[in-house]
Amino acid sequence: MVAAIEIVELTQSLIKCPSVTPADAGALDVLQGALETLGFVCYRLPFREDNTGTVDNLYARLGSGSPNFCYAGHTDVVPPGDIADWSYAPFEASVKDGLIYGRGAVDMKGAIAAFVVATKKFLDCLSDDNRTLSGSISLLITGDEEGAAINGTKKVLGWLHEHGETLDHCLVGEPTNRAELGDMVKIGRRGSLNAEITVKGVQGHVAYPEAATNPIRGLTTILSALQSHSFDDGTENFQTSNLEVTSVDVGNEATNVIPAYASARLNIRFGDGQDSSSLSHWIRNLCDTYAKDYNLDVRISGEAFLTPPGAFTRIVSSAVEEVSGTMPTLSTSGGTSAARFIKDICPVVEFGLVGRTMHKVDECVSISDLEMLSGVYRSVLERYFLKINK
Ligand SMILES: [Zn+2]
After folding, report:
1. Any catalytic annotation for residue 165?
2. 77 alpha carbon to ligand 1 midpoint, in Å?
3. Which architecture does CATH list for 191-302?
4. Quick check: is 145 catalytic?
């Protein structure tokens, strides 16, 4: 029995599963059902750590030959916020005026559906010509992208390695376009570093400062030095690195008390002119200089990386241009994605839907964009496997 696989219906079925991280709510079952219909062998890979809930993931592969072309993405979504603010309920996948509304419509259930339909059409076309797939198509779909990303792509890549599975090239389907489908392909991402600095002082009466130590003085001096630093003017493929202080906390409700501690959080988005270890050293040196007693906690979300423009980026750009009529900009802008883990395994490029409504109330995708994206993905498969250069 071969069930019909249709783009609007598959997008709707996925949106109807309220898969707010770490819940799966049946989303991977929907996807697995469609992929098994196409002949994919599916592996469900649930992972957990002591302090986290279990997160389910899916690796599916069609064919056993190489090259193995992998499509990566996630079925988890961010919470909808106050449901009363939505024009259409976030998990009902209502269609209105050519738009499908729902959490995950553009980030990124619609894109996953577009890839599944593209694969189906590509395979149909091969069988019409009595040809077989020369290589493999795989999907790496995680349920832990919008959360801590501890039990998702990173662990699936570990599992692939243990099981001798290799990926040759990867396309990530995150929303990459800003205004129109076709305007942007991502060929790398900036690195991201989060730091929390807590300067400790000695609490006391403001009228007797000699008997206290004000931690705010040290903290503000450190923050001022951090914020006045100029990193770089950007590099060939990366915009200027940037530091933002995201929170300053003292927890002092009194007007006559010097507080015992002062803390701040900050984030640095950095290009390939920087790396996390030199940035960490720089922050620690400033803390050593301006604070006697402090605690510094640095967490690295990912290093900056680049897939240099070449044969693989050309396949994706040409497919985008063929279908959308626009030659996309190759960019490294925006936040981090699962590509930061995959880049250690194989070249990775990202192209998906238009991100304008992602993570917002009334997230929606236009059906014409879904169809166009599916056309782009199909063209990528043709160019990749059949070496067709249209
Ligand atoms: Zn996403």
Report:
1. no
2. 8
3. 2-Layer Sandwich (3.30)
4. yes
